[in-house]
Amino acid sequence: MADRTEHVTFEHGQAFLAAISERWNYQILREVFFGVRRFGELKRALGISATMLTTRLNDLTDMGLLEKRVYRDDKQWFEYLLTDAARELVVPALVAVTRWAESSAEGRPLDTRPLLHTACGQETEPYLACSSCHRPIDAATLEPLAPRTS
After folding, report:
1. CB pairs under 8 A, 24+ apart, for 77-85?
2. What is the pLDDT of residue 96?
3. DSSP reduced 3-state for 49
4. Strands 66-72 and 77-82
5. Strands (DSSP E) along 48-118, which ranges?
6. pTM of the predicted model, to two decimals?
7. DSSP 8-class letter at 105
8. How far apart are CA 70 and CA 39, in angstroms?
9. pLDDT digits over 29-60, tens only?
10. Has residue 67 got a pLDDT over 80?
11. What one-character DSSP code corresponds to residue 22?
């Protein structure tokens, strides 16, 4: 492994990871990604109290991960959608964690949720690949290098 002369510090990254690793935040983001978007649906799917759900939805909206949208004109009822920023960063992490959990589950088998690649219209099983050779990357084939100087 390459020598490290500097420590990597990602204050914003650490705050983000702390936020999404909070139990309810992760579960809310996962459910919204998989299509559960309305307050009542989220409350039922997660078994979370209304107060806790309201707090977490507000936090995720304030962090710029969820967008709150009115879906009924006669009442202030909202649905929540992932923002572009959340889709860029959170979705790959959610898919990776979900797929890992599905394949590593002990006891009863878990149903896997199919994923659609909207660009080609085909069902897909995403994976991390090398930008040079296009082969899949796993932990054993990835090594960090020393940072480049400007």
Report:
1. 77/38, 77/39, 78/38, 78/39, 79/37, 79/38, 79/39, 80/28, 80/32, 80/37, 80/38, 80/39, 80/42, 81/32, 81/37, 82/29, 82/32, 82/33
2. 83
3. coil
4. antiparallel
5. 66-72, 77-82, 115-117
6. 0.74
7. -
8. 11
9. 989 998 999 999 999 999 999 999 999 999 99
10. yes
11. S
